[in-house]
Write the structure tokens for this entry.
Amino acid sequence: MKYLFPLFIVSFLLAFSCNKSVKKEYLKSVNITPAEFEARKSTCRDQLNYIPDLQHLDQTPIKYIRVNFHVMCNDEGKGNFDPKMGRYFINMVLKAANGKMKGNKKMNLPPGNDTPVLPMRYQYVLTGHPSDAKDDGIYFHNDDELYGMIGSGKNRNIYNKDVYNKYGIQKDTVLNIFIMTHPIDSLKSKTYVKDSKGIGYPDFVKVTNWFYKLKNARWENGKLEGTLNKWNAVKLLNHEIGHSLGLRHSWRGNDGCDDTPTHSNCWNKTKGKAPCDVYWSNNFMDYNAHSSAWSPCQIGTIHRNMADKKKKIRKLLVKKWCTLDEQKTVTISRDTDWLGAKDLEGNLIIENGATLTVHCRLSIPGKGKIIIKPKGKLVLDGATLENDCGDNWKGIELWSKDENKGSIEIFNDSKILHVENEIEMKDRES
Ligand SMILES: [Zn+2]
């Protein structure tokens, strides 16, 4: 005990001496400066302002899209995967599709490009019903009327939404993916083409032909035998979800991105055969054998849409930004402009000597806070600080030391909402 007592005193003195000159207080009131800058709302709509910054990936937290799968069979349970093979195949495809996004590749077009290769910062997560532990998010339906999907020709039904209307589950929170198949009767026709087709609506996806990629794969004595080709399914899944996320085909006309040039949509590189010997794409939103690349503008478009409260896709995301995770604290150490909306998952710290200027919506998690260090500065120019989850965040903590104090400037119609330590916004007299 006699050794513990001095130790306690030393710890106390250390704690005291380290903190004695830094004061911390929550911001209580702030003056709004009239329109000195123009509010730049259009910046919040520009997809280029949502491209992840390779030097600061923590400023674009990974978003998780909830997905479930429906395997459609005929009334006899035929024409598509059985439950055992279906679950195996779907889990395999999902893992590979997430893997493709973790390993984004360099764009092949235009030839000689120096387009950066950026991480996608989103993933899919298989989601059953939260109240049912046995629900793995993979379902099997037998329905003669709705199991078949025909991609082209006079009997085309690719755009039909009946299957989603009848079998969609957790439609408000999960992207429903329907594994359709070729109608057994159609396969009897010699002219029927077993196309790998799909369609990506904002709230559901239909794909077909996955079952026919099984080739001779089968279970024998509890082991998988034969060949299982997953890559076509992976490509189709990422392509169709790309549409659900707001991407357009990139080969014809304007897809809203300058880094995805138009081209003649060659399936593959074909030696000596112009233009496919030079202009073959590897982008996911073209039809090609490679499907390995997304461009920065495409990634920005996806993140812009996921940040947009009016878009259906936002409702399908796991709301990671609702729970404070101190490990996800974002620290700003150099002058930074946030020109797009953000959903932070941790606290926000503005370091000494750095200014953060926020122009759009910024969500802070419940119980989270913004810390402005003594020589740090926060500027709000047309920004809305909020909690997107119906919760309160703590507020803006200003640190001071000697003559320096963390500062904040507010311009235009900026708002600070949902704070526990309320902030009075006063009009500055001119
Ligand atoms: Zn498409």
Remarks:
- The first strand starts at residue 22 and ends at 26.
